[in-house]
């Protein structure tokens, strides 16, 4: 199969700018690797609220369900962040999309780029050689459990609920990834306090026997938050629930020195979505200074998912080439830097 | 008042070793500052389970309720950590104690010691001058909400619940502390997803008008986990709910380079408990290598609470003196180091 339907959701803030560089790069891939991408654009997030009142219009959902993969930019707008009373919020669109597409596994690879190591707030000897893959459960837990605020505003609650059925698929995915790598899987939880965490532990313990080569370790989330900074190299594959994954994976993103480089994939049984982990970064919107690399590397993850591993590798090499040769945006070099679109073009040309 | 009843709970692992250095130091304080401390010892944690079957025997709770302040060591034992099925666990004792004593505010000051800055995994320019005070709500939220595991082990849940009554007292405490400091308060939450977080935001927003000098800022917990590492100096006082506080404050503890230095206070209307933030560190038990400084600095927080500010200051100066002059345990200097008890004696002698 060499024909792919790609749903493109540029979203808010710098989303449109970085996504259009990904499209530029995909067009180059199509030419070189003899395949075809058909793009269908959809509204999403604050943009969608402004235009339709709905952060995830039905039309957008339809386009996504119909696609082979979704390329997503970013979501969020200060208009909503500064108003805790807002009833309709951009984030609801993203959460609904994850749920509707069944994107149960959010995957974030973390590696350091040799030429950028000194940009990290952490010391070189702590981070050099870090290579972590984080698996975060994405469609359950406290994000999707029952929520309630009493009408008088006196109390509120959020329920964190997990079933073994929700844990098993992502646990297998993480074990399988660990098998292909350094064979170490760390489950991050709070099993000394939470029933749901104990369910995660028991479920993973059972599954472990099917992966005798993989060493399964447990780490309390508070300790994990320390260990990620004290010694990130100790980790290979990390598996965790939705809320802990949100915190831990953003924390881990500081290791490499720029969040503008980090891609992610959200995978389900029938759909998949690819997005940079940076947010909408509204201050930079329209200035041509956003780093397109995270979006472009997310596109590489998409190519892997579409079973075009050679194209994915080529794209990653192109990115490395750009970085090693100083074709970077201002976040990576304040003296000598290029615009979002120049960096995108350089990468596309290399392909 | 110069007579104080101190409940002493040495607990597990290295707890007894570090607490006995605090007692040594307190004895010196009593002599110099003309006051009296009466110590009552209680069993707690794994030790208490082994001896009585109960991680918090009634006798211990009684001693604590009866005291002016509680000095606590550490809790936890690998026997329980490695057994997710254990019905009785050391941590239950600590959680029950917090609840029974109404210790709603866990306070953790974070400062860097000039002579130890290079021990941090973070770069000097990132951390030098960091001075943060974290207020973590300690007796509600997902720790104490309803928990359930279905008998077939197919699903489980934990409820995170907050009432405005639970938020208001600690919010005032944090605002008041910010007023005395750099007048900046950061509320860490996940208000784009959780109802409880939106309740925290609204409640703090209301209270803010009583503290016109304090600038109240909001930060999503995932972003906070990044910002603490990227630029810890941006923070003054941080306020957050129980689970986020557990993660964020342990994460922040890596900044200074040694968790063996960090104290904490847990404060309620009528009781207060002081403990080092490091855990029971079972591998070091009985070896005389544990760093007593965190426990001793917790004792300084206790002296402040008992309204003995001069004694507290003297104690802090003694600790600084010990560190600046190299009277430290092996975690801070692998070449030239002293035992737990030698460091404690040095600090006591200085007083
Ligand atoms: C925007 C927000 C709802 C989202 C989340 O918390 O999942 C984001 O932080 C992320 O990690 O993708
Ligand atoms: C031991 C554990 C229950 C406890 C907590 O999570 O509160 C500890 O991590 C702490 O922070 O004091």
From TrEMBL, chains A, B:
GO terms for molecular function: 3-isopropylmalate dehydrogenase activity; magnesium ion binding; NAD binding. It is found in: Cytoplasm. Its main location: cytoplasm. The keyword Acyltransferase does not apply. It catalyses: (2R,3S)-3-isopropylmalate + NAD(+) = 4-methyl-2-oxopentanoate + CO2 + NADH. Binds 1 Mg(2+) or Mn(2+) ion per subunit. Mg(2+) binds at residues 222, 246, 250. Belongs to the isocitrate and isopropylmalate dehydrogenases family. LeuB type 1 subfamily. This is 3-isopropylmalate dehydrogenase. It comes from Chryseobacterium shigense. The lineage of its organism: Bacteria, Pseudomonadati, Bacteroidota, Flavobacteriia, Flavobacteriales. The gene is leuB.
């Amino acid at each position: 199969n060499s024909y792919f339907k790609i749903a493109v959701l540029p979203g808010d803030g710098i989303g449109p700018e970085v996504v259009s560089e990904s499209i530029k790069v995909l067009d180059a891939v199509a030419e070189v690797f003899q395949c075809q991408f058909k793009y269908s654009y959809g509204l999403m997030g604050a943009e969608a609220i402004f235009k339709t009142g709905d952060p995830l219009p039905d039309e957008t959902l339809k386009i996504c369900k119909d696609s082979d993969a979704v390329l997503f930019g970013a979501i969020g707008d200060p208009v909503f962040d500064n108003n805790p009373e807002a009833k309709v919020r951009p984030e609801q669109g993203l959460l609904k999309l994850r749920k509707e597409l069944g994107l149960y596994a959010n995957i974030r690879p973390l590696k350091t780029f040799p030429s950028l190591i000194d940009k990290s707030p952490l010391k070189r000897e702590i981070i050099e050689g870090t290579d972590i893959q984080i698996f975060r459960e994405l469609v359950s837990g406290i994000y999707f459990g029952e929520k309630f605020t009493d009408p008088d505003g006196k109390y509120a609650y959020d329920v964190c609920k997990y079933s073994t059925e929700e844990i098993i698929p992502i646990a297998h995915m993480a074990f399988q990834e660990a098998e292909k790598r350094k064979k170490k899987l760390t489950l991050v939880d709070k099993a000394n306090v939470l029933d749901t965490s104990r369910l995660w532990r028991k479920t993973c313990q059972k599954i472990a026997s099917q992966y005798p080569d993989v060493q399964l370790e447990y780490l309390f989330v508070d300790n994990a938050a320390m260990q990620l900074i004290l010694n990130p190299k100790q980790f290979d594959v990390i598996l965790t629930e939705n809320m802990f994954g949100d915190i831990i994976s953003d924390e881990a993103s500081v290791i490499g020195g720029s969040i503008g480089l980090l891609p992610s994939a959200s995978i389900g049984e029938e759909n998949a979505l690819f997005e940079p982990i940076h947010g909408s970064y509204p201050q930079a919107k329209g200035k041509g200074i956003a780093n397109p690399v995270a979006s472009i590397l997310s596109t590489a993850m998409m190519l892997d998912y579409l079973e075009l591993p050679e194209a994915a590798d080529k794209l990653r090499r192109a990115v490395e080439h750009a970085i090693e040769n100083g074709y970077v945006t201002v976040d990576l070099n304040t003296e000598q830097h290029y615009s979002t679109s120049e960096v995108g073009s350089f990468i596309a040309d290399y392909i």
